[in-house]
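hiii, so i know i said id send this last week but things got crazy w the move. better late than never?? heres the sequnce for the chain we talked about at the cafe, plus the structure i predicted for it. fair warning i was half asleep when i ran it
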Amino acid sequence: MYYPFTLEQLANPVALLLRSKRQNPPNDVELIRLTSLNAGKGIDLPKNSSKLLAFFTVFTILSAFALAVSLSGCNKSKSGSKKQAMFDLSHREIFSPDLTSEMGLSGFKKDLTSSGYTIKANEKPIAAKILRDSDLLILAGPMTEFTVEEIEVITDFVKNGGNLLVFIHISQPVFALSEQFDIQPSLATICDTADPVQNSPQDFYITTFADHPLGIGIDKLAVFRTWGLRIREGGSANIVAKTSDKAWADLNQDLVLNEGEPQEAYGIIAISRFGDGRAVICADDAILINKFIKTGNNQQFGKNIISWFENKMT
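okay and structure toks below
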């Protein structure tokens, strides 16, 4: 006879046996006690009842199979859930993911959605409950400083497996935050005449990259009026892209190298592995805006960031 068993019933062999409408054994038959795998409950069966024992064995196997299918479905649902990228707009960030104009980040937003992210925007002070469902926090050119509480929330977010992407528009507002990841931005913009984008020493190509996944497929990264980055020795951070040795910190902003202005190779992109999460800090906030995302290999660089955040093994 065919019985329309449910998944719950398949997970309970005892219930199925009781439902089989077999008669209880007479008192003079020697009994054995079988135990359900999932409930720990017993049922008395005739010792010589081979058919009933076979029936029980079959459904015990089916029970284990049903449980495995159920767990598999749960795992698939969890792994297939959408990732969330949160753009913060509460610190007067000047670049929005929804702007399709030259000064927007709609091109980068498209690359994020193509990689499986849903996009959210935050206009309130950053708190743990705001980041609870997010996998990636993006600070696209913050203009105001972060509070001590916000910095603690962000560092905890990364430590617990979240990812952080920072584009620096003004170095001062991110100074205290970036130092949590052993990265320090300069207080002056950087000039470099080694490979200019056009005619200004403030706009130039980065051509020196570390052996790192962020540099895959990158020959030239265009930056525009960028700051410089340094990392704390022995800390968690690394420089993965830097200027030429001809670069200098333009302290008086005259676009000319003057006596006393430090000349060296400055970091432009720095990364940090922090707890279970990762941070990428870009000294220039214009790298991935619509106006410049097609310049050099900038768009590929953005895709590399997304990929590196996803692949925790690299």
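btw The domain at 82-310 is CATH 3.40.50.880 (Rossmann fold). thought thatd interest u
miss u guys!!
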